[in-house]
Design a protein that fits this description.
alpha/beta, Rossmann fold, six-stranded parallel beta sheet, binds adenosine-5'-diphosphate, binds magnesium ion, Phosphoglycerate_kinase
Length: about 400
């Protein structure tokens, strides 16, 4: 793993101004956050700096104001939630640069926390304008990035600032980078990857990257149908990207050459209509899917075989559910395999790292998210990492 500085590399920070990029893009309802996981994630970094006597300025984006002030997208809307989670009062500052910020800093005592307004109110943020970044940097002594979820964007607050101030990874960023490195950067072998979800087209780059890096590629979800179709299986009415069968074959060839075993289901759960516990529900071999049926989950035999694969592996990286898990009983395979992975992790035989919006929801549904080694809540950034891309926000932190 490329080296980066952490809070351990900071000297005495008492009285210094810390600019901390956090993720405050909270889901809101009726003026308050419905989920504060992102604030909780950065709490150790914020409190560690404040308790060491730094003046902490929180910097974040909130929604998509597209470079202008937007009355309902001010970070002042999350001030109450952030304050409650941190258990500290925080001062809202209606700018990110200039004299207002300077004056606010002079009011803050050592250990106090300020919240800057939505950095995306200024077009220089998404344009990664160095002049804009310089204005923000002018008021601070050092920069801490604790927002992995925004690290796939080369914006002023995620990338530009790291070149203008001494830059450090926050505790949440450090934890995420360490976990991701254990999963794909420098993993214990054999490595298994589970890739599921709706479509091959959204995860082509992920599959291409993984076949060269893992020993077992487990394909489930709607995208498995495209791979089955590529192998000549009639998948009936299933969700299937028939125009991508050649691509699916190319991925399987590439896997062959790389010594990666691709696992496709040989039994599946099908129904004629997509509804909870439909009357037409049945389990069959993949070669027995009728023209008016659709595959909505992988079957029990396939699930058991995959559990056996995981038992031979030391590392697992997982993105995408194996079936249409939001609707019963099409959550069965995902829940079962997630529980197997969690048990192996708890036994100490498997390092398990998972990510993706629906994947996190599925693991929570299975009740095992906390038993995985690491679950990333970063959507886009996690996928780009699985694609093997260098994330600009991470690259800028490396020394
Ligand atoms: P993530 O958000 O974790 O990256 P995706 O968005 O790629 O995952 O995919 C999740 C979606 O895939 C879920 O809404 C799920 O219902 C759907 N899905 C999984 N298997 C199937 C299937 N066999 N047929 C249709 N949809 C499926
Ligand atoms: Mg999704």
């Amino acid at each position: 793993m490329a080296k980066f500085k952490t809070l351990d590399d900071l000297g005495d920070v008492a009285g210094k101004v810390a600019l901390v990029r956090v993720d405050l893009n909270l889901p809101m309802k009726d003026g308050s956050a419905t989920d504060v996981t992102r604030v909780e994630a950065s709490m150790p970094t914020i409190l560690e700096l404040a308790d060491a006597g730094a003046k902490v300025l929180l910097l974040a984006h909130f929604g998509r104001p597209k470079g202008q002030r937007h009355s309902t997208l001010s970070t002042s809307y999350v001030q109450g939630d952030v304050s409650r989670v941190l258990g500290r009062e925080i001062m809202f500052i209606s700018e990110v640069a200039g004299p207002v910020v300077e004056q606010s800093i002079s009011i803050l005592r050592n250990g106090d926390i300020g919240l800057l307004d939505n950095v995306r109110f200024w077009p220089g943020e998404e344009a990664n304008d160095p002049e804009f970044a310089k204005g923000i940097a002018a008021n601070a002594d050092f920069y801490v990035n604790d927002a992995f979820s925004a690290a796939h964007r080369a914006h002023a607050s995620t990338e530009g600032l790291a070149h203008l101030l001494p830059a450090y990874a926050g505790r949440a960023m450090e934890k995420e980078l360490t976990a991701l490195d254990k999963a794909l950067g420098n993993p214990e072998q054999p490595v298994a990857a589970v890739v599921g979800g709706a479509k091959v087209s959204t995860k082509l780059a992920v599959l291409e990257n993984l076949v060269g890096r893992v020993q077992h590629l487990i394909i489930g979800g709607g995208m498995a149908n495209t791979f089955l179709a590529a192998r000549g299986v009639d998948v009936g009415k299933s969700l299937c990207e028939h125009e991508l069968t050649a691509t699916a074959n190319a991925i399987m060839d590439k896997a062959d050459h790389a010594g990666c075993t691709v696992h496709l289901p040989y039994d599946v759960v099908v129904a004629k209509e997509f509804a909870a516990n439909p009357p037409s529900l049945r389990t069959c071999n993949v070669h027995e899917v009728a023209a008016d049926e659709m595959i909505l989950d992988i079957g029990p035999q396939a699930t058991e075989a995959l559990a056996d694969v995981l038992k031979t592996c030391r590392t697992l990286v997982w993105n995408g559910p194996l079936g249409a898990f939001e609707t019963e009983p099409f959550d069965t395979a995902t829940v079962a395999l997630a529980r197997t992975a969690a048990a192996l992790t708890q036994d100490g035989s498997l390092v398990s790292v998972a990510g993706g919006g629906d994947t996190v929801a599925a693991l929570n549904h299975a009740g095992v998210a906390k038993e995985f080694t690491y679950v990333s809540t970063a959507g886009g950034a996690f996928l780009e990492w699985m694609e093997g891309k260098e994330l600009p926000g991470v690259a800028a932190l490396t020394c």
